[in-house]
Design a protein that fits this description.
Elements: H1 16-23, H2 32-38, E1 45-49, H3 55-61, E2 66-71, H4 74-83, E3 88-91, E4 108-114, H5 117-120, H6 127-137, E5 138-149, H7 155-167, H8 172-177, H9 186-195, E6 199-211, H10 219-227, H11 229-232, H12 238-256, E7 265-276
Helix pairs in contact: 1-10, 7-12, 10-12
Bound molecules: S-adenosylmethionine.
S-adenosylmethionine binds next to helix 3 and helix 5.
């Protein structure tokens, strides 16, 4: 089977509407700890890497002097600019953030990222480049604060997606290859961050059992459809994709259904860190 670098495709899997209204409105809101670590100040210039449709970016902007959001999705940035025209944002594939010379010129006090680095760092060939670009964006002494998926994040859904592809005859290697995520151990993230020149200040991993939405188009089905799009893209037709989604949901039914209120939980594992560019 031919090799495909999923990260060079131009498909935009992100729908701002599904993301923030039906599938995952909790992503930018369950962020108290990472916001506290960022601790935005009125004098701060902050770069938000993988800002999405800007809900969290706009919130941070109310506490800072200047905020710039960058995200690889045209759909997300279009929604951002419609909702928050007063906050600066633009489309940047952050695997190549280093090419944005007006950003990577030591003008930011802080670099922030929420729920995006496990997508942006997926490609091993650009991983170090991403972190080095974050480093280059900071003033000496500046800090980076990030929260993203850690090792074992959404493992039950991840495994079900891979299993479904194998069921369709996709090789296990290929099924792993099309995964759009890099979920590192805390130690692996620390190695990457330090290799880019940062001083590691602190890091932690947290299991966050997260109840999914119950609205039409949301829940585990909506989650699989939106976040699993790169896996489902391997299948030949819309019919196959719909069948696959039904089967994955059926598999997960016995795993994540909560006994006490019939809600559905996914085991999110959050990895957060704070690092500093030396003076
Ligand atoms: C789960 S959303 C998080 C958005 C936002 N930070 C929040 O907290 O709501 C992940 C975001 O990462 C972005 N992303 C994924 N790969 C990217 C890349 N290579 N460059 C820039 N952004 C990327 C997606 O477009 C998406 O908006």
């Amino acid at each position: 089977m031919s090799q495909k670098n999923v990260n060079t495709e131009s498909r935009d899997i992100w729908s701002a509407e599904s993301y923030s209204q039906t599938v995952a409105p909790f992503v930018p809101t369950l962020t108290d700890t990472v916001q506290a670590w960022l601790d935005p100040q009125p004098s701060d210039a902050i770069l938000d890497v993988g800002c999405g449709d800007g809900i969290l970016t706009a919130k941070i902007a109310t506490h800072a002097k200047h905020v710039v959001g960058v995200d690889g999705s045209n759909n997300m940035i279009a929604a951002f600019q419609q909702k928050y025209p007063h906050v600066s944002s633009r489309v940047v594939d952050c695997r190549f953030l280093g090419r944005e010379k007006d950003i990577t010129n030591q003008t930011f006090d802080k670099v922030f990222s929420n729920a995006a680095m496990h997508w942006i760092l997926r490609d091993p060939t650009t991983r170090l480049e991403v972190m080095s670009a974050c480093f280059a964006a900071l003033k000496p002494g500046g800090i980076m604060v990030s929260e993203s998926g850690g090792l074992g994040n959404v493992a039950e859904v991840h495994a079900a997606l891979i299993g479904e592809l194998i069921h369709h005859g996709v090789t296990p290697e290929r099924a792993r290859e099309v995964s759009p995520w890099w979920f590192p151990s805390l130690e692996s993230m620390k190695i990457l961050v330090e290799a880019s020149g940062f001083k590691w200040i602190k890091g932690e991993v947290e299991l966050r059992q997260t109840k999914l939405t119950e609205v039409e188009g949301g829940g585990i089905k909506g989650w699989v459809r939106l976040f699993g799009a790169d896996f489902l893209h391997e299948l030949g037709s819309d019919y196959e994709r719909e069948q696959a989604i039904e089967r994955i949901v059926e598999v997960l039914e016995g795993v994540g259904r909560r006994q006490h209120d019939n809600g559905f939980s996914v085991n999110y594992i959050r990895l957060r860190f704070k690092a500093q560019k030396p003076n």
